[in-house]
Automatic annotation (TrEMBL):
It comes from Hipposideros armiger (Great Himalayan leaf-nosed bat). It is an enzyme of class 2 (transferase). This is tRNA wybutosine-synthesizing protein 2 homolog. GO terms for cellular component: cytoplasm. GO terms for molecular function: tRNA 4-demethylwyosine alpha-amino-alpha-carboxypropyltransferase activity; tRNA methyltransferase activity. Keywords: S-adenosyl-L-methionine, Transferase, tRNA processing. InterPro entries: MeTrfase_TRM5/TYW2 (IPR030382), SAM-dependent_MTases_sf (IPR029063), TRM5-TYW2-like_MTfase (IPR056743), TRM5/TYW2-like_N (IPR056744), TYW2_N (IPR056745).
């Protein structure tokens, strides 16, 4: 999320001879391509570089500059690796610059500028290359609706991008489709690079959370060499790719039912060079035919992945078991008296064989002290209670699926991010092993 200034990233600039500079500037301003937030720079060979908006200058504009605007001019593109902010840009933050330029434009349309309109401007946003994603809580006043598409061109110009989109609420359709509207531009395809992994996706059709970066890094560091994984909610490859690219997984079965995410996932596997080590299972993972195959299962769905728990138990290896990585949004409201798992009548009905459930809080080589250390990383008691509920429920499911008792052990509870006030996104690493036969 972007909120203010900071060091400028490299920008694209069109290069020509000094005598053609003014013609180029006039044309780029007229076409709304001139980047007014960075200075025109003189190059070592005496030519002049004019910064432009976006990641490249379309070929038709280069042809127009060469053939009509300034025949005989050099007209090449370069990247300014350390662009110098213009005097105008140095004097104010991006939010202040946005307010200044939008207010001037609005008043030029004969609409009085007001405190209501100023309060309705965005204060933060997400930048995806030359596309800016605005939050849902801006540009809601009715006055904006009558100003037309030039409003979005003004916003994009002020913030140094070529495409603009606005986020809405995530659709409750089960496919986690974001309600994103493209305000300016031809498409919503963007690229994001994290930890050396390239993710390409259509931002109007697929979710992407910057807040999950800590969990992606943690997944990338797990010892998965030679292991087979099942990613029950793969999306565009948020965790599938770190498992394959960095953690060294031998193979991943990636499940996803959003067709737009599947297109992006297939592309991302290809561009990251791991397509031969992954099979995509398109459709409802509750109908997944796989079983007895996984060393690890990733359940990266929030607010809860509980509907996928039976399938996770089904795909674990019967002979050796494995580890489940279970995501969950856990509430921790102050003063709320939470009952321990299994204490309510409803929960007792969900666990029909509690006397046969085996949980291992100190086995598998773990001492009581190490068990205490594992839980000490989860500083909120609500996280402990939910983890214990999940452990007990998984133990029941494992016995039902495989017909014999299993040992379960909470290895780790990892906070990912604050999802909302008093709601935390956490991940439970749960080890599940079949009990040895006796006699």
């Amino acid at each position: 999320m972007e909120r203010g200034g900071g060091k400028s990233a490299a920008v694209v600039a069109v290069v020509t001879e000094p005598r053609f500079t003014q013609r180029y500037r006039d044309y780029l301003e007229r076409e709304k391509l001139l980047d007014r937030q960075h200075r025109v720079e003189k190059m070592p060979d005496g030519t002049v570089a004019l910064p432009v908006l976006g990641g490249a200058l379309p070929a038709q504009h280069l042809q127009e500059l060469r053939n009509r605007v300034a025949p005989g001019s050099t007209c090449t593109l370069t990247h300014l690796l350390d662009p110098v902010p213009s005097k105008k840009a140095q004097g104010c933050s991006p939010a202040q610059r946005l307010c200044l330029e939008v207010s001037r434009w609005v008043e030029g349309q004969g609409v009085p500028w007001s405190a209501e309109l100023e309060a309705d401007l965005p204060r933060s946003w997400q930048r995806h290359g030359n596309l800016l994603l605005l939050s849902e809580d801006c540009f809601k006043a009715k006055q904006w609706k009558n100003l037309g598409p030039e409003l979005w061109e003004t916003v994009a110009s002020a913030l140094g991008v070529q495409r603009l989109a606005k986020r809405g609420r995530v659709s409750p359709d089960g496919t986690r489709t974001p309600a994103v509207t493209l305000l300016l531009g031809d498409d919503g395809w963007v690229e994001h690079v994290a930890n050396g992994i390239r993710y390409e996706f259509d931002i109007t059709q697929c979710m992407f959370s910057f807040g999950n970066i800590t969990e992606k890094l943690r997944v990338a560091s797990l010892p998965c060499a030679g292991q087979v994984l099942v990613d029950l909610y793969a999306g565009i490859g948020y965790f599938t790719l770190p498992f394959l690219v960095h953690a060294g997984a031998a193979f991943v079965h990636a499940c996803e039912w959003n067709p737009h995410a599947v297109v992006a996932l297939r592309n991302n596997l290809e561009i990251n060079g791991v397509v031969d080590r992954c099979q995509i299972h398109f459709g409802d993972n509750r109908k997944l035919k796989l079983s007895d195959i996984a060393d690890r299962v990733n359940l990266g769905l929030i607010p809860s992945s509980e509907e996928g728990w039976p399938v996770a138990c089904q795909v674990l290896r019967k002979d050796a078991g494995g580890i489940l990585h279970i995501h969950q949004n856990v509430e921790s409201f102050p003063g709320k008296n939470l009952q321990p798992p299994g204490s309510s009548e409803m929960e007792k009905e969900r666990w029909p064989y509690p006397q046969q459930i085996m949980t291992n809080h100190g086995g598998n080589g773990a001492t009581r002290d190490s068990r205490r250390n594992v839980l000490s990383t989860a500083t909120k008691p609500e996280w402990h209670r939910w983890a214990q509920f999940a452990e007990t429920r998984i133990a029941t499911l494992l016995q039902q699926v495989h017909g014999k008792p299993w040992k379960t052990q909470i290895l780790h509870i990892q906070p990912v991010k604050s999802y909302a006030p008093h709601v935390d996104h956490v991940v439970l690493d749960l080890e599940c092993r079949p009990c040895p036969l006796v006699g």
